Amino acid sequence: MAGQAQDRPVLARKAEAGRPDPGAPLMTAERAISQALSRAAGELFDLPLAVSAIRERRMTLSDLPELLEELSLLALIEGPQETLGLLALPPATLATLIEVQMTGRVGRAVAPPRRPTRVDAAMAAEFVDAVLEGIEDGLEGMEEQVWAGGYRYASHLDDPRPLGLLLEDLGYRVWQIDLVLGPAPGRPAGLLWAVPAQGHFRRQPVRPTAGAPAAPAPESDAAEAADWARRMEGTVMGTQAVLEAVLHRVTLPLATVMTFGPGTCIPLPEDALERLSLEGAGRRRLAPARLGQHRGFRALRISSDEDEAALPQAAKPLKMKTAPPFEPGPSPFAAAPAPGTAAAGMGALGLAMDWDGDAGEAPAKPAARRSSSA
């Protein structure tokens, strides 16, 4: 009996060791996301990060682009069974992450928004992976880990239009998070995280301990990853891109444009053929170019500002000269109609009216005809 009494405290301590601390706050998806963001920013960049608001919504793929802030870095994240999600870093968030990595601190003013580059994506990829891994670990043993776990950075986009081709058309869990970055008072920022509503994550039974070398991936997994990368590249690179070679742009009054007809000449600068602009969607200038020939066909030679500066003095294009301005002419619709034209036209319709428009008011409307039955 004495031995049993001594064993009871030991057994009780072992049983209580596996129970959650009753004083600890209950873990939720919101709490896991907030902790993962703060831990990733602090451990990677020594950057204070506070979550001021977090909201979850259920949305379809067609509604997702409406929530994306313009010029955001769109990080494609890959999850279990080749599912894809999205983690968007708005310009203020991305600029702060780049700034703290380059200078080691957060400045007073945020940099002006610009289109994200591959370098920006590479510098933000570690933060994205750390956040996703932190969310996965924070939801260990919970049902939410099924849809939240297993995602890592895969690629990036600087334009939301290809999302409809890359992501599956299904329901998504969309998390909109308001952040405050840097020391007080902090810099307002944000983040958007979207994953399929129905997940497929399953934790592996054996998990490597901290500090242990990671086991090499099986050959089948490596082959699947390589195949997915090839298909992803084929999908992205197969997207149609429309380019325009702009010779020159002229701004004219509408009255002048209305006088255009066959044989109208539009003056151009003398060096217009050597100062073409290759432009993409939205008139975005991609590169300067020059017009020439190649094997008997008209061709466009792409150049750069450095190439133009390196040309010999004799080979440089002519000095830019502004085209002479147009003189607005009379509108063809302002000409007076030929005598009798309007009356003849109205008469042909049975609506001829004996009325001089310069004499005064219009005649009274004739009474409506009534048909009488015999």
TrEMBL record:
Task: State the taxonomy lineage.
Answer: Bacteria, Pseudomonadati, Pseudomonadota, Alphaproteobacteria, Rhodobacterales
- Flagellar motor switch protein FliN-like C-terminal domain location, by residue? 236-303
Q: Which InterPro entries match?
A: FliN-like_C, SpoA-like_sf
Transmembrane ranges? none
Composition bias of kind Low complexity appears in: 208-225, 362-374
Origin species, per record, is: Paenirhodobacter hankyongi
Which Pfam families does the entry mention?
FliMN_C
For the region Disordered, give the residue spans.
Answer: 1-25, 204-225, 354-374
In Swiss-Prot or TrEMBL terms, this protein is called FliM/FliN family flagellar motor switch protein
Keywords attached to this Swiss-Prot or TrEMBL record, sorted alphabetically, are: Cell projection, Cilium, Flagellum
